[in-house]
Amino acid sequence: MLAAARSLRRLSTSSSSSVRALRRVLLHHPPSPPSLPPPLPPLRTLTRAFLPHLAATHGLSAASFSTSAPSRLGERVDVRGAPAIPEEEEGEETAGALVRHDTDAYAAVELALDSVVKVFTVSSSPNYFLPWQNKAQRESMGSGFVIPGRRIVTNAHVVADHTFVLVRKHGSPTKYRAEVQAVGHECDLALLTVESEEFWDGVNSLELGDIPFLQEAVAVVGYPQGGDNISVTKGVVSRVEPTQYAHGATQLMAIQIDAAINPGNSGGPAIMGDKVAGVAFQNLSGAENIGYIIPVPVIKRFISGVEESGRYSGFCTLGVSCQATENIQLRECFGMRPEMTGVLVSRINPLSDAYKILKKDDILLEFDGVPIANDGTVPFRNRERITFDHLVSMKKPEETAVLKVLRDGKEQELRVTLRPLQPLVPVHQFDKLPSYYIFAGFVFIPFTQPYLHEFGEDWYNASPRRLCERALRELPKKAGEQLVILSQVLMDDINVGYERLAELQVKKVNGVEVENLKHLCSLVEGCTEENLRFDLDDERVIVLKYQNAKLATSRVLKRHRIPSAISSDLVEDEPTNGEVETSCTS
C-alpha cells in the first residue's frame, strides 16, 4: 500500500502533506516571467471547437477540414472509443452534425472561460519540531471555478494553512480578496467566497454533471505552470475507481484521465459537454499524462454537507478492516455456501457503531442490499466493479446502513449508524496550530503524522520506527485518546542526563495513565508531591523535584525565546481580581 502511494505525485515544493511520498498538483513558486507565445500547431491539431469560426471567417465549409481526431470535445464516445458520427460519412448531414458538435464544444469552453479563476494563496505551515512557531511564509497558485450560489470550488491543498487568498478572473488584471468558507482535507476540496460585487460582473457559474464513461472526452481548464494565462488541455477518461488522495491520505473515488495535469491546474474543472465532470487535483509520478480528477459524487457530497451543517462534516467510514475470502478453504471454514460471497471482518474500530454490532470473524455479505464479492468489490455501472468502501463513503453522517452478515453459519440483518472516525494518530493537521506543553525543558506533544513528516520525504524510514508503526496501525480505545510523546529536551541543569529520552511515549505521570496532552498538563500542574515522575516507553523513567522544575521552566522559556509554555488550545483564561490566571484544562 505504501509503495503504491509513493507513486502519486504531489507537485508541491514545500507544503506539508499527510503522505509526503505522494505529490499533488499545486504550483508553489511565482509565475514565470512573460515570454513570447509559442508558434501555432498545425491546423489539424487544433480543437474542433474552432472550426465553425474559421469556416465562417474564410468562407469554407467545416467538412473541408481534417476530422482525424479520435474524439472531440463535447461528443459522446462509446467504450470502444468510436466517434458518434462515422468519419467516412460525407455530405450536408455530416457537415451539419460536425458544426453542431463543435459549436456546442466551443460554447462549453467559452462558458468555462467566464467561470474559471486563478487562485493566489499566501500560507504559513506550523513547525512540528518547534510547535510554538510557524515556518516561513510562502506563495502558491492554483485554479478554481464558480458554481451556483456565488461560490468558488478549488482544492483544499491550494488554500491549506492559508493566511491570505486572492482570486483573479480570466482576462482581468484585478485580484479580489477571497475568504475560505469551508475546507474538506480528506476529499481535497474547498469553497471560497468573494464579497466584492465587482468581481461577480460577467461571471458565469458551471453546473455539475455526472461520472463520465470510459473513453469519454474531457477538457481540463486551469492555470498550470509555464504561463500566466488560462490553459485548456484535452483527454479521455481511462479509469474510474477508489484512489489514494495525496493531500488527505484517504481512499475515495477518483477518475483517471490522460489529459495533461500540471502544477497550477489544481482546483480547475474538467469539462464534459457543458458541465463539470470533476476537479483536477493530482497526477502520477513517473508516467506521462496520467492525471486524476475528483468526481462529481464526491464534490456533491462535500457541498451538501457544508450546506446542511454550515461546515465540512467529513466522510463516513464503517470502522471495519476486512479480508478477502477468495480462498475456497477459508470460505468453507466459515460456513459459506457455494453461492455466497463476502468478506471476513478482521478488526473493528472501538469508536465505531459497528464495534457494538459486528464481531470479529463475521462474514459481511451485503451492504444496503448490494452483494459484496469475495474480493470486496460491488457492481458499478456497465461491467465495472468498485470496492464497497465507496458505498460507505457516500453515506451522510448519522445515516443508517443495513448489513447482511453470516455469523456462526446463520445469516443476520444488522443496522449500523455511520459517522466519520478520527484515527488515534491524526493523518493531517491543516489550518490549526499544533498543541504542546513545556515543563522543565521537556517538550510534550500529541503524536501526529505531520510530526513524522518533519523527518523529510523519506519519513517512513527516517522517523523513529516504533512511532511510525503506531501511527499506521494502532486504533484508539476511547474517545479523546492521544499518544503523548516527549518530542525533545531543551537543555538545562534540571534535565541533564535525560536528553537521550526524546521521541518516547509518555505512559504515566505519578502513576496515573495519560489519556491525552490536556490530561498530562493537568496532572503536572496539579502535582502535590515533592517529586514528579514520568514513566515512558521502554520502561524509562524521569524524576524531577517538582518545585525546582517549575522554577526551571521560566528559565528555559527565556533562554529559548519561547512566548508560552502552553499552546493556546490548552490554556484556560479566568480573570481574577483584574489578573489573568493561566491553567491547563482536562
From TrEMBL:
Top-rank taxon: Eukaryota
Entries under InterPro entries matching the protein: DEGP_PDZ (IPR041517), DEGP_PDZ_sf (IPR046449), PDZ (IPR001478), PDZ_sf (IPR036034), Peptidase_S1_PA (IPR009003), Peptidase_S1_PA_chymotrypsin (IPR043504), Peptidase_S1C (IPR001940)
MF term (GO), any: serine-type endopeptidase activity
Entry keywords, A to Z: Hydrolase, Protease, Serine protease
Residues covered by the PDZ domain: 318-418
Listed PANTHER family: PROTEASE DO-LIKE 10, MITOCHONDRIAL-RELATED, PTHR45980
Protein name per UniProt: Protease Do-like PDZ domain-containing protein
